[in-house]
């Protein structure tokens, strides 16, 4: 989805949900962004799930250690803000995930549909976040800007707020920041 639609926020809410925390162990969150070095990503995952891991291993050793750390466990991994479209890189990264228990999940957030297609596992679910409706934007804007106070008492602020919401094009991050 587009930048600012709430992909990371939604993934973070799911990741930190009490039921999710109880259901998955281990869990790891890695912000990938433009820097998509598979070895660095592997190290980041490993340091999240196994803090005592030694950072100086070569890539093959890291993959073996990650595979052993995930073997037979129902894990949750979030790869946030992925940009890399290189199938071979992602195939290499995924290799240690195959030994995880049934029900393990990898959540990928990306603004690039091509990345989503490359990352698809066999039991994938792809959800594209779209901008919010004007009514939904207004509701969230009022919560943040007016802290749910009675906006009807301030008609001039309401008209200004409506113009702000209109300019935000349905992007939650934009009106939350402005609110």
UniProtKB/TrEMBL annotation:
Keywords: Plant defense
Location of the NB-ARC domain: 1-149
UniProt-listed SUPFAM superfamilies: P-loop containing nucleoside triphosphate hydrolases
Any Pfam family the entry gives: NB-ARC
InterPro entries found in the cross-reference section: Apaf_helical (IPR042197), NB-ARC (IPR002182), P-loop_NTPase (IPR027417)
Gene Ontology MF annotations: ADP binding
Biological process per Gene Ontology, one example term: defense response
PANTHER family on file: DISEASE RESISTANCE RPP13-LIKE PROTEIN 1, PLANT BROAD-SPECTRUM MILDEW RESISTANCE PROTEIN RPW8
Protein's recorded name: Resistance protein candidate
The organism of origin for this protein: Vitis riparia
